[in-house]
Automatic annotation (TrEMBL):
PROSITE patterns, per database record: SIGMA54_INTERACT_1 (PS00675), SIGMA54_INTERACT_2 (PS00676), SIGMA54_INTERACT_3 (PS00688), SIGMA54_INTERACT_4 (PS50045)
Example GO biological process: regulation of DNA-templated transcription
Protein name according to UniProt: Transcriptional regulator
InterPro entries: AAA+_ATPase, AAA_lid_NorR, GAF, GAF-like_dom_sf, Homeodomain-like_sf, P-loop_NTPase, Sigma_54_int, Sigma_54_int_dom_ATP-bd_1
Record domain Sigma-54 factor interaction: where: 195-424
């Protein structure tokens, strides 16, 4: 094969590669049209067609020189001998001018008027992983049109076209999956992350969210545990220009100091013991979208300076490499702590606080928006109805009054949990009834007193130990009860509990394990 032919084939490969990014947007039509033009520059023919093959059917994706009706044809491969011969061969097939086999395009070439049969035909199959995915056919009304075509050139053309065609199909499939996934995510997000409430404080919060959403400002969401700070973060993302990008959440309270850098920025294989492969950090995963830093007040001081550098420069450096990477992320952070007090106490960097709190948002506790309790209850009840598989689930008037009378120290999350327990009890007592009513007999009276007990005396349970014990047993009982009480008060957050008890988190976990304390979904 001469240098000129090789150079031409290289040009075809380059042209097809340049069309692949369009496929990533789902535009496989543009690629197949480019494919027709590319092979037409290598082989002269009156008609060329690119066909997709699936489940024994071949159908045109793009063609040149064929009647428009050809694009609507669906060929059963086994019913068309020439297509079957092309599909079953790994090498290009050139049919003799006097071949008696019928051609699927007889009478459809535009090169001349009339229903004339095709006189020259050839084609080659396109395989991916031993599976037929397509074929390209060449037809001409000149009987000797393909006699001078060099077979080695055709073989090389087949090879490079098959590779690009398979890549195009894969990109198109991935693009379709991504669109489907994004559509499902939007639907699920709308159902699961709806902000309920029309109280005055909630209306102001929604207005502030809508105001800041379309900006690129960093947002600091503050509020008590269970108020719905994550919902606020998701609403900001969904109403922003980055809504089509990823929303990536990082729970800073769960990050140990020596792994936090890898979690944020990623690492390279061999960067440290246990790094057996490359791993992308959350910053890179969130590129083009929003990075939600939940419980930012729990982030170790040593990691705060590294996070600040990334926010200032827009660059990250994975552990184990010296090469920085640019990332485009919008930062939304949340905390249930007063970060100003944390700054004054030296537990949080002032410069990071000011970088994060460009636009602060305060999420009101449920006790400050009591008029939203009933709408929230209705929202949760409808979700519970579906989960429990009952036709109708309703709340009695006395039960609603009891809900409104409670001060909800656990906020919206506590309301959801109380309703879940009450609905389950109501279903159990209602047996096979179509309409299940939740009333005060299934209700929250004992929950209210239990929730308020820690506020009255957070150490009451810890100090309740039998008198007839040895000093060691009494000490261990006190430690166990105290740790359990503070874990419960801190929503099972080990880092917050350790800070409150002024002990190292790792030491607290070891002590709790020795005392027989384990946290799954509840204390045991």
């Amino acid at each position: 094969m001469d240098q000129r032919t090789l150079s031409h084939l290289l040009g075809i490969s380059t042209e097809l590669a340049q069309q692949l990014p369009r496929v990533n947007e789902g535009d496989i039509g543009a690629f197949t049209q480019a494919l027709v033009r590319a092979v037409q520059s290598a082989v002269t023919a009156d008609a060329i067609a690119v066909l997709r093959c699936e489940q024994g059917i071949a159908y045109p994706l793009a063609c040149s020189g064929l009647a428009p009706e050809a694009m609507g044809r669906r060929f059963v491969i086994k019913d068309h001998p020439r297509l079957a011969a092309i599909a079953g061969a790994q090498q290009p097939q050139i049919f003799a001018a006097d071949c008696p086999l019928p051609d699927p395009y007889d009478g459809m070439l535009l090169a001349t008027a009339g229903a004339l049969p095709v006189h020259a035909c050839m084609g080659f199959s396109l395989y991916q992983d031993a599976q037929l995915v397509g074929m390209i056919t060449f037809d001409s009304l000149t009987p000797s049109a393909f006699e001078q075509v060099a077979l080695p050139m055709l073989v090389m053309l087949q090879s490079l076209v098959a590779a690009h065609f398979a890549t195009a199909l894969n990109l198109a499939a991935l693009s379709e999956q991504a669109r489907h996934g994004r559509a499902m995510l939007r639907e699920l997000s709308h159902q699961s992350y709806t902000m309920i409430g029309n109280s005055e404080v909630m209306q102001r919060l929604k207005q502030d969210i809508d105001l800041v959403a379309n900006s690129e400002l960093s947002v600091l969401i503050q509020g008590e545990t269970g108020t719905g700070k994550e919902l606020v973060a998701r609403r900001i993302h969904e109403h922003s220009s980055r809504a089509q990008g990823p929303f990536v959440q990082v729970n800073c309270a769960s990050l140990s100091e020596h792994l936090a850098e890898s979690e944020f920025f990623g690492h390279r294989k061999g960067a440290f013991t246990g790094a057996d492969r490359h791993r992308e950090g959350k910053f890179l995963v969130a590129h083009g979208g929003t990075l939600f830093l939940d419980e930012i007040g729990e982030l170790p001081l040593g990691m705060q300076s590294k996070l600040l550098r990334a926010l200032q420069s827009g660059e990250i450096q994975p552990v184990g490499t010296d090469k920085p990477q640019y990332v485009d992320v919008r930062i939304v952070a949340a905390t249930n702590r007063d970060l100003r007090q944390e700054v004054e106490a030296g537990r949080f960097r002032a410069d990071l606080y000011h970088r994060l709190s460009v636009f602060p948002l305060q999420v009101p506790p449920l006790r400050n928006r009591a008029e939203d309790i009933v709408p929230l209850a209705g929202f949760f009840v409808e979700q519970l109805r579906k989960k429990l598989g009952v036709r109708q689930l309703v709340l009695s008037a006395p039960f609603l009054k009891q809900l409104q009378a409670h001060d909800w120290p656990g906020n919206v999350r506590e309301l959801e949990h109380v309703l879940s327990r009450a609905a389950l009890k109501a279903k159990h007592t209602a047996l096979a009834q179509d309409i299940v009513e939740v009333d005060i007999t299934h209700g929250v009276q004992w929950q209210a007193s239990a929730a308020q007990a820690p506020a009255d005396n957070p150490y009451s349970e810890a100090t309740s130990v039998p008198a007839a014990q040895t000093l060691k047993a009494a000490t261990e009982a006190f430690q166990k009860n105290l740790i359990k009480a503070r874990l419960q008060a801190n929503e099972l957050n080990w880092a917050a509990t350790a800070r409150e008890l002024s002990v190292d988190r790792a030491n607290l976990v070891r002590l709790a394990k020795r005392l027989g304390i384990a946290t799954l979904k509840k204390l045991t």
